[in-house]
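Deviations from the work plan: none for this task. Representative record:
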Amino acid sequence: MQRYFYNEMLANEQFVLPKDIYKHAITVMRMRVGDKFELVTPDKQVQLMEVTAVDKQQSRAKVIETFSHQTELPVVTTIACGLSKGDKAELIVQKGTELGADRFIFFKGDFSVAKWDDKKQAKKIARLEKIALAAAEQSHRTTIPTISYCNSLKELKLATDESGIVAYEEAAKQGEKANLVKVIEQLTAHQAPHLTAVFGPEGGLSTNEIEILMQEGFIQAGLGPRIMRAETAPLYLLATLSYALELVK
Amino acid sequence: MQRYFYNEMLANEQFVLPKDIYKHAITVMRMRVGDKFELVTPDKQVQLMEVTAVDKQQSRAKVIETFSHQTELPVVTTIACGLSKGDKAELIVQKGTELGADRFIFFKGDFSVAKWDDKKQAKKIARLEKIALAAAEQSHRTTIPTISYCNSLKELKLATDESGIVAYEEAAKQGEKANLVKVIEQLTAHQAPHLTAVFGPEGGLSTNEIEILMQEGFIQAGLGPRIMRAETAPLYLLATLSYALELVK
């Protein structure tokens, strides 16, 4: 079933499709009277909607049923990634959204080749927000992940009670494999667990960056014995969170 | 450290770089006398090599040290995917190799829009083999995954003692979440576990295909509550295998 996000609560049962939803549902998907779609409102409820009228300018739908369906990871997860070249950020946001991330932060790492200047930043973020929205709709989530940028990893702060890990190649090479399991166990002990996970850019993190993160309370964690590309490691982490907290638990 | 695969055992300590390795190591990476790289031989041993001579036609290296480093998933894993449009097969092979898969099989599913005719097949497979090789080198594996194509899912057979799962969207929607955990537990009980995991193309698997797989002994498994794209689900599975069998165990 096609799903859309709507950023207001529904005032009454008759819903006039806003332009972007009209364009996709009526023009692209060719929905007609009687067809159904889902609408996620800011309260994270899902409304099953039925199209009641279609004309060239406008379309209306009504609420058939309201339900909530838990499709969010039980841990609020921030993925912070060093900037890499090319469209790696897009892949991280698209796949990371499907895998349940809540927040993406991109930062200029010591070894980042790419950078986003002020002008580029707004454009990049807007593009990534679109990708996150489409992926959230497609994967049937009830939350759209947010995207932000920071100039330095020093701005990454852990909230009280928030867990933090950093995927560090050197830790993986030395065979470190206990810390991810430990952190995930800690998460299960919390009522409303939060996790921030930091990943280097293509060139990795500098020892200086690792030190800054460790002072902030981040724990180095190995993600298995293979060396993953910068954009693969966050997906590994998110899949393991789902497995450990949604399937095993 | 740069890693290359070599498909023969080293006859003596002096190694003449074959053309493809020469091209990458000497021409692209600009290695010179004294520089080191790793060479994986068919016995899955890693040789630490030092360049001893470089000229315009040829280069030689010698073995400094031989070691084995376990970077392979403890379960031999086959990823069978329905053909999807675009370059999704490339993404599956690249990321799936980083995540430890041993074999990729692409098949024409009932709902596949794309297909590989005989002519296309050889070209596609050759391209995917190159991607698998590069990803295996980059992720420091000792095995290069194989790529094959089959015309129908009916050709997918489970070996004696091999476990089989099929990721089925309908199972996930119905909240099925016990089977993946069960299958992974079974794998840990085997001395040399093998798993084949089947994933539909973009349009999913047909009920007929699910029936064929279940008759062959495949078990339907949900991979969490979010609907993943065709190319994301195999990555989820491989990451959970690594987590459960390499980190938790």
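The mean pLDDT of chain B is 93.
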